[in-house]
Amino acid sequence: MILAFEFNYISYNGILENLLKEIANDFGIVHKIIRKESIVTLFIDADEVRLGTFADTLSSSLPLSIFFKSSSVEVLESMPEEEEVLPSMAYTVEFTPKILASVDAPSSPQYLSPFVVVPKDASIHLVHEGKNLLHVNMTEGYESLYEKVSELIVAGENIAIQTKNGHFVFGKIENISACSHVVFPEVIATDLSVVERMVVSRENEIKALASLERPSIRFKVNALFAQKEIFQEARVMLRLADDLFLYQLSKRLFAKGVHFLFKASPKECQSLYSVDYEQTLKALEPLVVSVLENGTILIVQGKSYASEALKGSLKKFDEPSHAALASILQEHKLFDTALSCFYFSRTHNDRVMHYSKENGMLNLVEILLPSSFAELFAEIERSSPSAERLVASYKEQFPELYEKIIHTVIPNTLPKSIYSLWKIVAIVLGISDNFDRAAEQLIENAEDFGGQKGPRIDYYLEKEDALSSDLNYVRLLRSGMSYKLAGTDTITLSFGCMESLSFFLSDMADSHKDNLTSSKIALCGSLFGYKRFTEMLSKNIKPNHTICLNKELPIDQ
């Protein structure tokens, strides 16, 4: 009897195929693994009783993955004739049921080991101000090391720990105020059960946190935790332990009543203690994801988890927007398809592009920025007689705000992007008085908006009916100032800025479909890591267009 276990696995990183091979080999059963597009099929040949036992083993041995979408089983008459080709793994996995069982079982030779594969002469040092306190390389030593480090953290010490992502300082979340320049807190929850004590989360986000890849997710801090005033930020990046040392440490800290750790760079936070390995660990870029309401998971950061072939193909692109579009074309196999691409980034210049097999990539829309706030107000005044009166009224009604605006510097290194433009908008509309965090504040306000509809902020091109033109930022600011003068609050204004952009892009998608025969819309760039914006835009675009998002590569290159 032949059973075919089909898995829809959207990454080509080789992880699923190798895990299936390991499970089948450990069970000692006749099998073959074949991949066609995103479908990985494990064919098993055995009698009915043995197949039933194997199915149970497979279910308990296969970890949840952010790249795993669905599965099915069917009965076949014979094995396929294709030869099995097993790809190499893009990285070394840690959080499989088999590995966790081996490091948690006292009878296992791997018990308490922080290494998946134990290097020769592996050893770890606990150091205090340059002096060795512990030097361990066996189970008994690991136990004493985890216990000592957890006791130090409980006592209020911060400890620098070498991880697969680099050196970071960890301590109780209550100690984060002792650190300087922590721009955006990253939090390690010591157990999945405590996550909702700090943040507002969805069920699909909780599942993603516990997946094989152990990603970090941006969450809103809940009202109860915010009342503790441990930190001022309304959003945090939160994850579970993502390497085996932190995994064992977290279990002991959770048992001692420590539920959350902060994670900071050594530049942000000082520590008297450190945990160091003598071995060099293969570095992995930390994985950050955004989980949309429909279950779609976007990789915001973390190339290490994608296939080597995909990563290698993007090295020939110097322009991030072109690399991002190329990644969509490759992952979706769209090289023969006409499509439009909206690339909006926090760190690079934005572009609206069009791709066709005949013409390649064409840049259609770019973002320009004023060089100063004085120039911005002068441009608004010159745009129309009524705009001149608008600026005069703004100065009169908000004199202190206007003075702050005029004395705020717009850096000349600012990426030409919507994110940068939102910084400028937030300063002008009094949404924020901190230029560096202004766009983030606007976005957080928009996410917190509880109404049904915001004010319609004017997003137009300089040449309204053209397919290729720059964005008219003067009209955008002018409309925002009008609503501000009319008494619209900052939360509603912020939502209007986000919602109106989604309507503007939806209208542009329709125009491209009519005039450029675009059959699909690609969304890429780190701005789409903000799930409310992405969900809003997707809702507006979807009725008339097919949306393409990255599957295993980060949404920004």
Architecture blueprint of SSEs:
Blueprint lengths: L1 E8 L5 H13 L2 E7 L2 E7 L2 H14 L6 E9 L20 H8 L19 E5 L2 E6 L2 H16 L4 E5 L2 E7 L13 E4 L9 E2 L2 H7 L6 E6 L1 H4 L8 E6 L3 H12 L4 E5 L8 E5 L10 E4 L5 E5 L6 H6 L6 H13 L6 E5 L7 E6 L3 E7 L6 H11 L1 H13 L1 H8 L11 H11 L9 H11 L24 H13 L4 H26 L4 E5 L6 H11 L4 E3 L9
Parallel strand pairs: 7-14, 9-12, 11-15, 17-20, 20-21
Antiparallel strand pairs: 1-3, 1-4, 2-3, 5-6, 5-14, 7-8, 8-13, 9-13, 10-11, 11-12, 15-16, 17-18, 18-19
Helix pairs in contact: 1-2, 4-7, 10-11, 10-15, 11-12, 11-15, 13-14, 14-16, 16-17
How would you sum up this structure, described in words?
By secondary structure, the protein is α+β, with helices and mostly antiparallel strands. It folds into three domains: 2-76, Alpha-Beta Plaits, CATH 3.30.70.100; 97-277, Alpha-Beta Complex (DHBP synthase), CATH 3.90.870; 373-515, no CATH class. 35% of the residues lie in helices and 21% in strands. The protein has helices spanning 15-27, 48-61, 97-104, 139-154, 203-209, 223-226, 244-255, 308-313, 320-332, 373-383, 385-397, 399-406, 418-428, 438-448, 473-485, 490-515, 531-541; strands spanning 2-9, 30-36, 39-45, 68-76, 124-128, 131-136, 159-163, 166-172, 186-189, 199-200, 216-221, 235-240, 260-264, 273-277, 288-291, 297-301, 339-343, 351-356, 360-366, 520-524, 546-548. The strands form three sheets. Strands 5, 6, 7, 8, 9, 10, 11, 12, 13, 14, 15 and 16 form a twelve-stranded mixed β-sheet that branches. The chain has a five-stranded mixed β-sheet with strand order 19-18-17-20-21, sandwiched between helices. Helix 10 crosses helix 15, helix 11 crosses helix 12 and helix 13 packs across helix 14. It is globular and about 80 Å long.
